[in-house]
Amino acid sequence: MKAILKSAITAEKDSIVFYLGMKEAIAQDLGKGRIDHIIKEEMGHIKLLSGKLAAYRD
Question: CA of 23: how far to CAs of 17, 40, 48, 57, in Å?
Fold first, then answer.
């Protein structure tokens, strides 16, 4: 389970990097605000997964 959680956290981090790249490539009026929202969601996923991972380290 720990390996699965670590992989999921890595995938979420990769997603954030992808969306940050997209954000730089598009104009403000084409949805930068929506991308910010997606990035915040991904960060929330990392927090959730990290909490679950920490529970396995006991």
Answer: 10, 13, 24, 35
Supply 37's token pair. Answer: 């929202």
Domains contained in the chain, number: 1
At 4-22, the pLDDT tens digits run: 999 999 999 999 999 999 9
Please state the pTM of the whole predicted model: 0.86
Helical segments of the chain, H only: 2-25, 32-56
Q: Is 50 left (phi over 0), alpha (psi -120 to 50) or beta?
A: alpha
Measured CA to CA in angstroms, residue 41 lies from 12, 16, 25, 56, 58 at distances of 10, 9, 20, 23, 27
Tell me the residue range of the domain where 10 lies. 2-56
